[in-house]
Amino acid sequence: MTVRERKYCRVCGGAELRQFLDLGEQPPANALLRAEEIDLPEAKYPLALSHCEGCSLIQTTHVVSPEVLFRNYLYFSSVSQAMAKHFAAYAAQLAERFVPPGGLVVEVGSNDGILLRTLLGRPLRVLGVDPARNVAEVARSRGVPTIADFFTEGLSKQIRKQEGPASVVIANNVVAHIDDLDQVMRGLDQVLDERGVFVMEAPYVVPFLEHLEFDTVYHEHLSYFGVRALESLANRFGFEVFEVQDQPVHGGSLRVFWRRRGAGGEPVDESVPRHLEQERQAGVADRARLDDFAQKVAGLREDIRRLVRELRAKGKRVVGYTAPAKGNVLLNYCELGPHELEYLADATPAKQGLYSPGMHIPILSPEHFRHDRPDYALLFAWNHKDEILEKEKAWRAAGGRFILPVPKVEVV
Predict the structure, then answer these.
(1) Is 4 among the domain residues?
(2) Which member of 49, 123, 192, 332 lies 3.0 to 4.6 Å from 358 by CB, making a disulfide possible if both were Cys?
């Protein structure tokens, strides 16, 4: 089936799922179109969030087949210099802390090798796993051995047989994209050394709620994690969360460290109970808090639509800057098309010349944007705001203005 409704929580298996946010039916956020496709019917699927009353996991109500979403992917991590620096420091920390000489580092959802290639030349071994064949080929061309497949228990057995146990398994912004988390946990159990460590990064549910980050809800992003839900998952499979670090990327993320229960090592860090308390105070499990979030998102939608249309009515030229998944979610939810935004400027060559899903806005290069000099640009990759504002300082000095859409509409 291409899409199915999820009736049970993917973390705890509970059946008490309550929907609180509905963004309507939308096309997959990364399903960019060629020119000859924009007049053809597009597949659209429900995009809504529910809350598990048992473990507090926030999750999408429907699951779209990963074969539809991930086999040909157009997100390349290396486009962002900020992310390249983030992953380089991250990789160095893990290698020095957890990987002995000759140890194996496996990354699930390794994309174009942005993290693993920073470890090449160290006295250790690396292996990437990513289902997007086009992206995996880019990683291999950069010297990062990569398996183009989904991470499963069967693949983990194969990796252990061929490469031996892994000292560290890394998963960055990928666990939240996987529906069958039991399969992931069984895979970790197979491939990790007895004292091995699993480290994951994912956007954190607390800033998601506090900053109204509704545009990070898309079909690929199935789960919106807090430490409470992750502990519930770890405990079911004999693992424990022993440390949590806050990271500024993607609007506020967590770096979570797991190990087998009873494996020894450092005591559980105080960051774990601290984050659990933070989630309690933020109302992650509070129905009224979640309903308030949904109401504020609806208000933000109207603010975005109002500003863009007022600018257009005044004769101002407005475009979009970057074409990430979050941007396409916002465009479809706010119903902004080429009559409101003339084009989207994006630095990813694979996206240029294509059209946004649903709204069919052409995607052009940043070079075109700089030559064209529109009046306003709606900045979709707000998580890279500082990097982009610096990159486009000449346009801003000439009078150009960015519109930041979340957590409130702001003109910069």
Answers:
(1) no
(2) 332
On whether residue 266 sits in a domain, the answer given is: no
3-state secondary structure (DSSP) of residue 355: strand
- pTM of the predicted protein model: 0.90
233 vs 180: CA distance, rounded Å: 12
What CATH number does residue 351 fall under? 3.40.50.720
What is d(CA 270, CA 143) in angstroms, rounded to the nearest whole number?
39
Please provide the DSSP assignment of 230-253 as one string.
HHHHHHHTTEEEEEEEEE-GGGSE
Residue 302, domain member (yes or no)? yes
Nearest alpha-carbon partner for 77 in 287, 245, 279, 324: 324
Is residue 303 one of the residues assigned to a domain? yes
- φ, ψ (nearest 5 deg) of residue 138: -65, -45
pLDDT, tens only, 252-309:
899 999 999 998 888 999 999 999 999 999 999 999 999 999 999 999 999 999 999 9
Query: How many domains does the chain fold into?
Result: 1
Give the chain's mean pLDDT: 94
Compute how many other C-beta atoms are within 10 angstroms of the C-beta atom of residue 267: 8
Judging by beta carbons within 10 Å of its beta carbon (0-12, 13-18, 19+), is residue 263 exposed, middle or buried?
middle
Examine residue 248 and say whether the peptide bond preceding it is cis (omega within 30 degrees of 0): no
CB 160 within 8 A of CB 190: yes
DSSP 269: P
Distance CA 324, CA 57 (A): 25
In this structure, what are the phi and psi dihedrals at residue 36, rounded to the nearest 5 degrees?
-75, -5
Containing structural domain, residue 325 = 288-411
Give me 173's structure tokens.
């912004």
Secondary structure of residue 388 in the 3-state scheme: helix
Residue bearing tokens 């982009």: 388
